[in-house]
Amino acid sequence: MPCKDYACVFEWRYGSAEMRGLFSRDNIVETMKFVEVALAEALGEAGVAPPSVAEELKVAAEKVTAEMVYEEEKRTGHDIAALVFLLGRFSSKEASRWVHFGATSYDIVDTAWAVILREAIGIVKEKLKMIAERLSSIALKDLPMPGRTHGQHATPITLGFKVANYIYELGRSYGRICDLEKRLLLVKLGGATGTMASWGEKGLKVREGVAKKLGIGYHIISTQVAPRDGIAELISSFAILASQLERFAVEVRELARPEIGELWEERGERIGSSAMPHKANPVTAERISGLSRILRSLASGAFENIILWHERDLSNSSFERFLLPHSFLIMDQILEDMIGLLDRLAYDPERMRINLHAANDIEMAEALMNELILAGLTREEAYNASKEASRIALEKGLRLWEAACSINKVRELLGCDSLKRVLNPEGYVGLSERLAKDAIKYFNEQARKC
To answer: Which residues contact 423 (CB under 8 A, 6 or more apart)?
Structure first.
């Protein structure tokens, strides 16, 4: 049976049923009919059309199906014209005169998209909150582990601190989405070139009426289409969000390596390889990476759609029919995968501790340098002494405190007992716990915005 969704490529694999339903052909047509009825009501209230037209159009709209619209489109070559003609055929002759009166196709298309995207963005925000909630439970874990910069051991962190950084980034994305909604989710109503000429002085009242019925604001001016920067901003924000989630997915992939073994995705009975029974591949994290690449590539096309000729051309239309449904289905799948990944996430505190000490604690060279500065050395002197202690520790297999204690000047300034105490990496995690709590608070503040 042929796929009946705009997003049929993804119907069997990506995106939740809820998100797929929003972008189904049925829902798109239903939303367009909803907008046409709202327009008829606004025309009646503004005194442009008889008030009875809207009630008659509601009845006609119930009789027109998506299947009928797309069959009619085969004849007309135009989906909105097909919808309008069908609504007229199921209305009286008098009422049919006023269907779509003064409107242009993209008054309906762009406004319908605003209604659909409002619901779709709501799904994204809810799943983003679910992810933050799961991350927040981990962010409170005070488990020391290696910090890594450039792939090398840096100063120690905690697991909670590592995860809290992602919560903060996701909070920024949540706030970004809230901000863009006021520029994107707007009624577009202006007629053929946006001047409202067909409605005369009553045009503003018609637009306000439609906006009020749909529960959203409106563009104060437009050409034949709404400004495409709103869509570009949306897809860009999705690309950023996907990249943030991919960064976490890459972290899991890296730390799941057998030689690291700090974090991994529990696979249960699922098969990692058809050839190698022992494999427990991080396939969910890898799928997040793969799908994120698609979203980033779609963002460039969204920017191209801003650049329309004069009061508009049709170059944006075909791309947006693909762009909008697929961007949301990809984003939805990434969010679903992230939730699943977190639900199956496992970590090993003992392996973190072992790895933290694996390089003989040389990651505490900064702490040693600072102690020497506080004891009176210049920064250059302290830096060189700490570097020398690190070299000795690696070459002789000593802990950093032992290597530092073997250097006369360092031992005289700080003493071996003090060195052993201050150069323990498990105690050098700074304000990790406080900063993690601040990150959780920040996300919750952003989530309360909208």
So the answer is: 361, 364, 367, 368, 399, 400, 401, 404
CA 171 to chain CA mean position, Å: 10
DSSP codes, 211-240:
HHHHTSEE-SS-SSS--THHHHHHHHHHHH
116-140+153-188+220-354 belongs to which CATH class? mainly alpha
Q: Which of 150, 274, 278, 310 is catalytic?
A: 150
Give which of 360, 338, 142 is closest to 251, Cα–Cα. 338
Distance CA 104, CA 200 (A): 15
Give the pLDDT band (50/70/90) at residue 196: very high
Residue 46 carries which side chain, given as an amino acid letter?
Answer: A
334-346 residue pLDDT tens: 999 999 999 999 9
pTM: 0.93
pLDDT recorded at residue 11: 55
Active site residue 150: yes
* Contact (CB, 8 A) for 329 and 258: no
273 in active site = yes
- Name beta bridge partners: 148: 153
Residue 178's pLDDT is 97
In the chain, domain spans: 116-140+153-188+220-354, 362-423
Q: Is 377 left (phi over 0), alpha (psi -120 to 50) or beta?
A: beta
298-332 as b/e: b if 16+ CB within 10 A: bbeebeebeebeeebeeebeeebeebbbbbbbbbb
Who contacts 415 (Cβ-Cβ below 8 Å, separation ≥6)? none
What's the pLDDT at 181? 97
Q: What is the pLDDT of residues 355-410, one digit of tens each?
A: 999 999 999 999 999 999 999 999 999 999 999 999 999 999 999 999 999 999 99
Average pLDDT over residues 207-235: 97
For the segment 12-48, what is each residue's pLDDT rounded down to a tens digit? 589 999 999 999 999 999 999 999 999 999 999 999 9
Please report the DSSP string for 293-312 in residue order: HHHHHHHHHHHHTT--STT-
> What separation in angstroms does the CA of 197 have from each of 6, 31, 101, 200?
33, 25, 11, 5
Q: Given the residues 78, 92, 137, 273, select the one marked as catalytic.
A: 273
Phi-psi region of 96 (alpha: psi -120 to 50; beta: other; left: phi over 0): alpha
413 in Cβ contact with 376 (< 8 Å) = yes
Classify residue 229 by burial, with Cβ atoms within 10 Å: 0-12, 13-18, 19+. middle
Determine contact, residues 319/305, Cβ cutoff 8 Å: yes
Which is it for strands 263-265 and 345-347: parallel, antiparallel or unpaired? Answer: antiparallel
